[in-house]
């Protein structure tokens, strides 16, 4: 099949939208983006694609990464809760968690698991992450400790994080979905990261809103990811590519499995597609 041709007569990248998760996908283990991956993304955008970062991190935990990359487009943050314009440092859309429903959800989970370690992400461009006793925040990311449970509910939230002293992430997510899935969306987004989100929210929700702003659709999209929270994004996009380091649940539904995040897995796929342009 011949490559699509743009109005200028040059070959056009086969997907008009490249959606990449951040941790474990675009970022290597040292939180950097390789020169090879940067070059492949630049070549894809030069050939007519738009690149959108789609991450579970809320804006305050994402902004410094995007600034370091020189990224000035749209980003989907907070598991789809926020659409953020990186170039303008402006929050375009935001969905908050119903705190009453979240409280009911937590009570139902803890009735089965016993006490949980809790953290919460406050809404907004500068929303802090609060971390309670026992909760381990990964990656050296900033968080404010709290000891009074009322502090958790004192301002609008976009998510609650839960950890358990003995259950694995998969086990905790399964219990949370079974006991509280009618009140919140439960996702497992990485090691030690099980989250309670507004009911019905997913990365696909935010990505579809961002794509609409760019006048693009699911059929235009190739998506890269590594964790179960990327499942809805893969279900929405025309093609889903899992990293070699991805969770087995995501690999099972992926159209393709590429190299790991430390082995430039995104670049491997983009370079192959670019080579196909001739």
Description:
It is a single chain. The chain has nine helices and 14 strands. The strands form two sheets. The chain has an eight-stranded mixed β-sheet. With 278 residues, it is an alpha/beta fold.
Mean pLDDT over the full residue set: 93
Largest sheet: 8 strands, mixed
The strand line-up of the biggest sheet is 5-4-3-2-1-12-13-14
Helix amount, in percent?
A: 25-40%
Strand content: 15-25%
Shape, principal axes of CA atoms: globular
Low-confidence stretches: 1-9
With helices defined by DSSP (H or I, 4 residues minimum), what is the helix count? Answer: 9
Q: Strand tally, please?
A: 14
Radius of gyration: 19 Å
Oligomer: single chain
Structural class: alpha/beta
H-E order: EHHEHEEEHEEEEHEEHEHEHEH
Distance between the termini: 12 Å
Task: Give descriptors for this structure.
278 residues, alpha/beta, eight-stranded mixed β-sheet, six-stranded mixed β-sheet, globular, disordered N terminus
